[in-house]
Amino acid sequence: MNLEDFKKVLDVNLLGLIEVTLQFLPPVKKAQGRVVNVASVMGRLSLTGGGYCLSKWGVESFSDSLRRDMQYFGVKVSIIEPGFFKTGVTSIDLIEKDLRRLWNQLPAEVKNSYGPRYLEEYLKAQRFSMNILCSADISKVTRCMAHALTARHPRTRYSPGWDAKLLWIPLSYLPSFVSDFTISVLLPVPEDNRMVCPNRVDVTKT
């Protein structure tokens, strides 16, 4: 990825969220209202490179600092950390289209370091993961939003989705070598690095 790829995501997912929050904060503060920001489990555990995980970590940090600043004024701040759901962001067609775009803009030497089969193996791993992890029940997310907005005692964090509760959030608390190994099992290895982990299991073939 190049810097522009990062900027596009950060502008929408992080800087846009901060700008909207700051614009509405004075009346929210006056009314002792609430701020509910949507982050992601990817704000707890980075699965891939690029701007998405980076932006969601930023949402977590901004929301945490805002909550601590606003508690003295009666403003409650909550963070929604959804797992994987079937939305435009997780559309296999869109993901593959963008991955092919990124691959095609790479210099030849970088492509060669990953190997000629890497892209197709990566796309296969993406399809495998999305088919297993993505839930179609978006109401799990909206129910958390409704609770954060209307409950007398809203939670600081909500983690809708079975994968968030049972996989990603627990994994984020474990030592880094455990999370690194678990994530590496889900992704292909670049050709130049196959000898580093020769006994790695390809879960897409099991």
From TrEMBL:
InterPro entries in UniProt? NAD(P)-bd_dom_sf (IPR036291), SDR_fam (IPR002347)
The record's section on SUPFAM superfamilies has:
NAD(P)-binding Rossmann-fold domains
Question: What is this protein identified as?
Answer: Retinol dehydrogenase 1
- Can you provide one Gene Ontology molecular function annotated for this UniProt record? oxidoreductase activity
Cross-referenced PANTHER family: RETINOL DEHYDROGENASE 7, SHORT-CHAIN DEHYDROGENASE/REDUCTASE FAMILY 9C
**Gene3D superfamilies hit by this protein:** NAD(P)-binding Rossmann-like Domain (3.40.50.720)
GO biological process terms, semicolon-separated:
steroid metabolic process
The UniProt similarity line reads: Belongs to the short-chain dehydrogenases/reductases (SDR) family.
